[in-house]
Amino acid sequence: MPQEARGYPYRRTAGDGYPLALPGVPALLPRPMLTIIINKNSLVTLPTNPKRNKFLLEFTPSSIAAGNTGKIFVGRGFTPVPTVGDPNQGEVLNAGSEILETANYAGDPNVTQSSITIVSDTDGQQITIDDQSFV
Q1: DSSP per-residue letters across 92-127
Q2: For the chain, what is the domain count?
Q3: 77, 45: one domain
Q4: Long-range contacts of 60-63 (CB under 8 A, 24+ apart)
Q5: Tens digit of each residue's pLDDT (9 = 90 or more) over 77-99
């Protein structure tokens, strides 16, 4: 099956596997999705990236990972406090929820370019992270 039919926004070269841009579309740098276990210690999951095209944080549902009963706190450019109601709590993810930002064009200011830091109020929470950048 051609890669374009599978939803890829780019073609790969036969030799090196690096993405090539379609006419008029910047090339994307694909990365594998990461699944990590987050604890009560804060973790910078995505560093500052001025070329970020897309990022996804998906808190695995408790129907898949039975231990995912807590909350994950997400800070964009700061370290969140893992307490609901705190002014510095950031965004809160419950099991099965996600945060997705996608750029409509290169340099779209709607996608966070700053670092993404997460922390959980419960040990052993599973989260999936996806990050793509323009080349």
Answers
A1: EE-TT-EEEEE-SSTT-TTS--S-EEEEESSSSEEE
A2: 2
A3: yes
A4: 60/35, 60/95, 60/96, 60/126, 60/127, 60/128, 61/95, 61/96, 62/95, 62/96, 63/96
A5: 999 999 998 899 999 999 999 99
Q: Model pTM?
A: 0.75
Provide mean pLDDT across the span 65-71: 89
Whichever domain contains 108, its CATH number is 2.60.120.770
The pair of three-digit structure tokens given for residue 22, joined into one six-digit string: 């379609």
The pLDDT confidence band at residue 30, using thresholds 50, 70 and 90, is low
Q: Do residues 46 and 110 share a domain?
A: yes
19 and 47 together in one domain: no
Q: Whole domain around residue 72: which residue ranges?
A: 31-134
